[in-house]
């Protein structure tokens, strides 16, 4: 969607690292928010899963900082972010649900990783700078591994045999 | 020929006769000369050209209400004048000034025993086209009352200043002619010399006094939605608030006005709106919001005939129930009732002060008879009541906007102050302001809001207490002055009766009322309602003497001193 | 507005500790995110911002921010905010509402707020339903949407808030989609910066009563044309708008409302002279 504009704007490895860091920190923030939502809505299993996902993304962010090495990584341009609509790896909050199961969280994560993979693949192909393209290919490889990991984990959580989780209590009006 | 100490005048006319203007000028001239006076009016339903009656009372002593009957009735014409039959009661000695060219007055207005005198308005106008009938009538009335021609001329010139010297002169001449036409009249409607100068005096209506009281009390924002008979409060504030750095905005409806003033007050600025019964009904929900979120506001209700649209141009005391009981939930708040035209200033200023001090809404229960009566009053003294809420300047982390203790008043953070951020809420909340359904928190905040209102030291202003004796009259609002006059008559006959008139209707004052009623064996409750709202309120909150009677009737007719006096003398023995 | 340089604020500075009660999946989480990012981008100190709301799920938002807030009564957020802004022009006042609170009970105030053009930013989280009270239709609900209170649907044509806003004088009209938080944040920044009454309708799906709204993400699209400053052109576009055009759609040039000013009187007794006999 808005990947093309971001790809155009990445003119150096430093910018690429900054964007990559933004992707990860946004993802961390998003998973933490989901963990909080799950805790407030009494779904502790999913709260744990989202915290784990947040941790994993946090590690990835650390990895990126180390990989940047001596490069001065430009801080994010302003608090709103480079993408016009949404950061690619960030989980889609609108697809959350208070009764979601681990499989749903993994599907969310998978979708995020796939979007990130698509972005880096696009950058590897169309980036302005040779080094950027090479680095992008490396990042894409990393994201491919994450996609595979999600798919493997999903094998553990098969689709539910019966219908979706059901809450016999109807929604309440609290105001 | 004994001169009188009080004379009541009624002037009637229709179709652009300018009766109300005439009444105002008569009042102006008399009060400028040193008499006390008040002016009220009665009108037909038309917007223009309708029949109108200007009702004045002039006196050498202080007066706060209309007299029992009219002494002098001046008819510019008698078209549709029977409308005023119930309000213009003449006595056998009354005098009717009538224009033969306009036909006789309606029979209802001319009881046997009343005297007639001719004032040939139609003829005089025909002979002097530049004269206006109402100016001739004005001059006639002034002469009969014994007003100085020059005082009257001064008022007339001032009134027609803008229209040019010629027109002013013509009207002065018209008035003089009217005076001369009465020369042969040997009636005794002349007022005695006015009392010694009282110091600076004003001519003011209750609504104007209300507005000025608010301004003096610190109000600097008003939201307005017009409604009869309260609009004049807002009309006075509109040009005057900006002169003291404030502002008034016209809102789209009463729901907007009350929410606007809550928003403004939340922002730190004392704020007010004014309305009547129908508007107050609309504002009830937001009054609850201000109570729950502890936001100071002042809402003036100039009561009119009810229920529903009722009689917009007439007075009643029937919004007591909604003012006291109207908020849903348990919502302690303030209700203050002015007792006279001049008391409108004090009551509103005090209400502003209290609202700010207690971070709560204050309803000022005025009424049409106070609001739209113009009276000569001594210049109201400056009072020390300037609204000043307790502001939070230092903040714990987190800031506890609704912290307990401190007599129930918690310091309020004003937006813009770092560290004081909180969300004001109508939802039941914790001391921090977080919504909650906890029994303990709900109870704690209810206790807090009740404590701050009930434990405050309101002082002597809570009620008017006059006289001694084991009989008492208890009333409120505009009936205070009426009762006072009735009691003066009763006392002149040797009776010993007290007057009790609470100015603070909410919170109730059980201890103070018990003290006020100590020794009272016979109590007369007086109110202008159909359902005895005030009596039931007293019964609900106070212990009344065994022998308690109620004299109540609804509007639109004002209750007269004579009626109360009759209740006292002809009712159960004093 | 503050004359000092923007602070280096982070979105987290504008969030309170209070955990939202919104259902997971609710678009309002995105709106909160967008709002905090927008406020950080504007660099305004939290204490200089007031978030005013009415009643409904969306109206819970003030307590989730670290700004001054007022959770008022149903439908009355706009006059509450107007009163505050008129006496405190130094504050940045954001008004939050939903399609029920804002377009139904609040409809009259909406018209007059657009007319009056006080410098406010009005964010309406529209989910085409009354969420808080368990799923009744709102003025923007499709006429054939079945609910308990209106079996078979209302049969009543939905309200068009953008057209109404424009016709009533709103100085800035935009539509956003909660699922695009960056875009929404940018629109909010522009709305706050634009003087006068700025109206942003934010499509914000309701996961509990309108699970069908998950499909919105495939229906929203950037408006095909740039925003216009011509009210007539904007009106024609908005009348034929498909309800999913995103972006700033109209920018007007009306001066924001200012209350009447008068020469200050030196002494208050000047005001009282008119009463003297």
What does this entry look like structurally?
The complex is a heterotrimer of chains A (175), B (574) and C (277). With 175 residues, chain A is mostly helical. Helix content of chain A is 64%, strand content 0%. Chain A has a single domain, classed as Ferritin, core subunit, four-helix bundle (Ferritin). Chain B has four domains: 176 residues, Pyruvate-ferredoxin oxidoreductase, PFOR, domain III (Pyruvate-ferredoxin Oxidoreductase, domain 3); 176 residues, Thiamin diphosphate (ThDP)-binding fold, Pyr/PP domains (Rossmann fold, 3-Layer(aba) Sandwich), CATH 3.40.50; 49 residues, no CATH class; 107 residues, Rossmann fold (3-Layer(aba) Sandwich). Helix content of chain B is 35%, strand content 20%. In chain B, helix 4 packs antiparallel against helix 5, helix 6 packs parallel to helix 7 and helix 8 runs parallel beside helix 9. Chain B starts with 5 loop residues before the first strand and ends with a helix. The model of chain B has no long low-confidence stretch (mean pLDDT 95). Chain C is of the alpha/beta class and 277 residues long. Chain C is globular and about 70 Å long. The N terminus of chain C is likely disordered. Chains in contact: A-C, B-C. Chains B and C meet through helix 1, strand 7, helix 6, helix 7 and strand 9 of B and strand 1, strand 2, helix 2, helix 4 and helix 9 of C. Strand 15 of chain B pairs parallel with strand 2 of chain C.
Secondary-structure blueprint:
The complex is a heterotrimer of chains A (175), B (574) and C (277).
Chain A: H1 3-9, H2 13-40, H3 44-68, H4 102-126, H5 130-156
Chain B: E1 6-13, H1 19-32, E2 36-43, E3 52-59, E4 70-75, E5 90-98, E6 115-118, H2 121-127, H3 133-145, H4 149-159, H5 165-181, E7 201-205, H6 206-217, E8 221-224, H7 231-243, E9 247-250, H8 254-266, E10 271-275, H9 277-293, E11 297-303, H10 320-325, E12 334-336, H11 343-358, E13 361-367, H12 368-371, E14 374-378, E15 423-425, H13 439-454, E16 463-466, E17 471-474, H14 479-492, E18 497-502, E19 504-506, H15 510-517, E20 522-527, H16 533-541, E21 547-552, H17 561-570
Parallel strand pairs in B: 1-4, 4-5, 5-6, 8-9, 8-10, 10-11, 11-13, 12-13, 17-18, 17-20, 20-21
Antiparallel strand pairs in B: 1-3, 2-3, 2-14, 7-14, 12-19, 16-18
Chain C: H1 28-42, E1 49-53, E2 68-71, H2 77-87, E3 92-98, H3 99-105, H4 107-116, E4 121-126, H5 161-168, E5 172-177, H6 181-193, E6 198-203, H7 216-219, E7 221-222, H8 231-239, E8 245-251, H9 269-272
Parallel strand pairs in C: 1-2, 1-3, 3-4, 4-6, 5-6, 7-8
Antiparallel strand pairs in C: 5-8
Helix pairs in contact in C: 1-6, 3-4, 4-5, 5-8
